[in-house]
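Comment thread on ticket #2218

A.B. wrote:
> Attaching the input chain for the structure job we discussed in standup.
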Amino acid sequence: MSTDYRSGELLLINKPYTWSSFHAVNKLKHALKKHPSLLLDDKFVHLKIGHAGTLDPLATGLLIICTGKKTKEISSFQDLPKEYTGTFFIGATTPCYDKEKEVDETFPIEHITKELIYETAKSFIGKQEQVPPMFSAVKVDGKRLYKLARIGEEIELKARPIEILEFEITSCELPLVDFRIACTKGTYIRSIARDFGLALNSGAYLDALCRTKIGHFNLEDAKTPEEFITENPY
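C.D. wrote:
> Ran it. Output below, let me know if you need it in another format.
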């Protein structure tokens, strides 16, 4: 069956480190703009393309990208549960809850045992209210929070309902703690890092993050943008 990007295709892309989700989408859009399936009446039509769930620049992993008529299904993919693996750095915080900004405060970790780490992770499983990071794409009065944060505007953020379905500690060598988390849509792993540090009577930020699953879609089936372009010549 030939590929038809105008009628609609679903692409599984492994977003590279430091790339924005928009950068990944734009890379594919540029590469596919002269694809034969976009030729109509001897002219190339505009390619509709979008992703189903943002990843932060410092995160890697699975992006679902939809083209053509498939873009109408983006919200249904956004609603699917997600799975992530990553690393917390225990004993320090940053304003954005990850490594994009410098450490702003440090905390003691001498009281933290591996047993406490494992028990704290278990306590996070279930339905709860989560406050999103100020440096995020959440909109308040039509404006992105990260844009307000960059100009120093303080906003009182409202907690939103989420559910952590699974929270597994896969390695614990302080100050680094590796994890696997399965959660519902709208969950910010950076906020979990912040809250995890608070629960330990310390501080924490997100040191690394990779999205491994969206619903039944798996990262192992995804291609980097460069791999996709190389393996799909036209």
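A.B. wrote:
> Thanks. Noting for the ticket: Residues 2 and 50 are 21 Å apart (CA to CA).
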